[in-house]
Design a protein that fits this description.
This protein is mainly beta. It has a domain of 93 residues. The protein is built from 2 helices and 16 strands. The strands form 4 sheets. The protein has a 4-stranded antiparallel beta sheet, with no helix packed on it. Strand 9 and strand 10 form a beta hairpin. The chain starts with 11 loop residues before the first helix and ends with a strand.
């Protein structure tokens, strides 16, 4: 059983937490509410240039909004829940991951550019490398697939067979700032976190959380 964390009011951590909570209660105010999806929103992301907001929904669509909360366009093409949305570093390309087992690339006008087909299970997460040339996708099938912008599959990272069949596969994937490593979170009941080096098929680190 996990122990309870007790903070001493004289402790610096306690003071920082208390200050943050006070700030959030008294100074954080809702500016805009983005309404338009017909089902739950699974993912939201700002473009790196700060001009666009993308929302991914269980209704199978992604919507792009401006900072004032005005809907600009709807990305239609997936045939299942859209679980994750990510912008390229230059803010010009959007990647989406879906329960239809695909990843799609779009431009800012909402036009579909590529469909990346390879996963055999729901795709939970998608991420761009820092140079924008590589895309990683994480799936329930127990794999992380790495692609280039042209949709060519470059590499596949796999969980051990028992893990990918019984405990939900990969949930999230992100690139390191230099683009040479991938970090993942896997599992549902037995969480694990790992770091993989591009070009290698075994994790550099694998931390299991009971």
């Amino acid at each position: 059983m996990a122990g309870k964390i007790r903070l001493n009011p004289e402790d610096e951590t306690w003071r920082q937490v208390h200050k943050a909570l006070q700030w959030s209660m008294f100074y954080v105010r809702e500016q805009n509410r983005l309404e338009g999806h017909e089902d739950e929103v699974w993912s939201v992301n700002f473009s790196p240039d700060g001009q666009l907001i993308a929302t991914a929904s269980a209704d199978g669509t992604v919507k792009l909004w401006n900072r004032e909360g005005q809907e600009l366009t709807t990305l239609i093409g997936h045939k299942g829940i859209v679980a994750s949305v990510a912008f390229s570093p230059d803010s010009q390309t959007i990647a989406t991951a879906s329960f239809d087992k695909t990843v799609k690339l779009w431009n800012r006008k909402g036009q579909e550019l590529k469909t990346l087909i390879g996963h055999k299970g729901w795709v939970y997460s998608v991420s761009f490398s820092s140079d924008g040339q590589t895309i990683a996708s994480a799936s329930k099938d127990g794999t992380v697939e790495v692609w280039n912008r042209e949709g060519v599959l470059l590499q596949i990272f796999k969980l051990p067979t028992p893990a990918n069949k019984s405990d939900g596969g990969f949930n999230t994937v992100t690139f390191s700032p230099d683009g040479k490593k991938l970090q993942h979170q896997a599992g549902m009941e037995r969480l694990s976190f790992g770091v993989w080096k591009m070009g290698k098929n075994k994790p550099l680190e694998d931390i299991k959380v009971q």
